[in-house]
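Notes from the 1:1 (GR / supervisor)

We went over the backlog. Supervisor wanted to see one worked example end to end before approving the batch request, so GR pasted a single chain during the call. The sequence is below; no edits were made to it. Supervisor asked that the structure be written out right there so they could see what the output format looks like.
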Amino acid sequence: MEKRHIIKNILLFSIFYSIIFSQGLKVNNKKIINVENYSLVPFKEIVHKDSVRIVSFAEIPFSTLQFIKNSDGYIAKYQISIGIRNNKGIDISHQIWSDSIKVNEYESTKSKYRNRKHYFSHNVEKNQNYIAFAELIDLDTRKRGLKEKKINLKKLNGY
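Structure output shown during the call:
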């Protein structure tokens, strides 16, 4: 009889515990997709006493894109947009490229070292904050990867 009572209490406790704590714990199940595994690196260069040139580089490793086999080898098609926004989120300027990458061997499609680079430059006013952004779209899978980097020019000295 006492064994039943202990088993019943353990069962009730486990049910109570799972009801109470399962609602409070949330697991972030967001899986990072390949198209998000590229890099965006902005650089700043003082041009005049009141303006700065921001040059943003995007580097896309071949492993980020989906390659499709064709008669000549493998091909990946993509589109990338690189630009600058002000601190209010308003687009100041951007540029869009549509391109494809062709390789002969399957091993090249998974390479993290082989890559494609794009860059964008734009002159902006000094003493303000900006956001460099890039959006990569794999044209075969239609998946998107967005990157943003904050650029603080308020504390920039020089010239």
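Supervisor's comment: The helical segments are 2-24, 106-109.
Batch request approved.
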